[in-house]
Design a protein that fits this description.
The chain has helices at residues 26-29, 49-55, 102-112, 126-132, 171-179, 190-193, and strands spanning 8-9, 16-17, 60-61, 75-76, 92-94, 115-120, 138-142, 164-169, 184-187. The protein is an alpha/beta fold. It has a domain at 43-57 and 92-198. The strands form 3 sheets. Strands 5-6-8-7-9 form a 5-stranded mixed β-sheet. It has a two-stranded antiparallel sheet with strand order 1-2. Strands 3-4 form a two-stranded parallel ribbon. α3 (102-112) links the parallel β5 (92-94) and β6. α3 (102-112) runs parallel beside α4 (126-132). The protein is globular and about 45 Å long. The protein binds S-adenosylmethionine. S-adenosylmethionine (SAM) is lined by residues 43-47, 61, 63-65, 72, 77-79, 82-84, 95, 97.
Length: 208
Amino acid sequence: MLFSRPGRCRCWGWAVDSLHAMPSGPAHKKCFAHDRSQDHGKEEWLTPPDLVNLLGPFDLDPCSPVRRPWNTAAKHYTVLDDGLLQPWHGRVWLNPPYGAETGKWLSKLVRHGDGVALVFARTETAMFHKHIWPMADALLFLRGRLTFFNVDGTPGKCSAGAPSVLIAYGEGNTARLREVAHFGAFVMPMSLKSRAPSELPLLGVGRG
Ligand SMILES: C[S@@+](CC[C@H](N)C(=O)[O-])C[C@H]1O[C@@H](n2cnc3c(N)ncnc32)[C@H](O)[C@@H]1O
């Protein structure tokens, strides 16, 4: 079983740290990678292949490395094509470039309406409140943290600097996330989907 004991599990090849065994303190924090504050803009953090295989097959990955160690979909766009400008088709796998551009990719997936996205679970941000909470059909908050891969196919030395969430757009993708819901917490934000983002009250003190 994936989460039968505390500590690091590599049962699938994608490493997950048990929530209860997450390290703390400065020494361990240095080890976290793939986080906006610590990653100096590196974009080439690849999805653990077993995670894509679990959720696939996908028809299109619109943002993939120029030289990829494995396929994530039947067709790939790279930065040389600019996947944001290309027409999208079929079932899409989206682990988008992180940072300010992420919202544009999610916005396109919302309009496309068929796909699964993987982003950090920064649930308070403007991006999350615009493209995910009111637009997604389902979310699966993954238990523990993923270890992303380098373009040469090797796993990163550390787990990610934040928890990850899978986001389903479309009925089939919602069903798929429900089938694998035991890997985290499955949520269907139905009450929000029927409301336009601008109708949502802003209660907090900060801005995402
Ligand atoms: C977080 S990585 C995800 C890679 C891959 N989709 C996966 O799931 O493993 C984001 C990828 O987007 C690519 N990328 C960045 N800008 C792009 C663009 N305008 N068009 C297509 N791909 C782009 C980067 O080269 C990088 O490989």
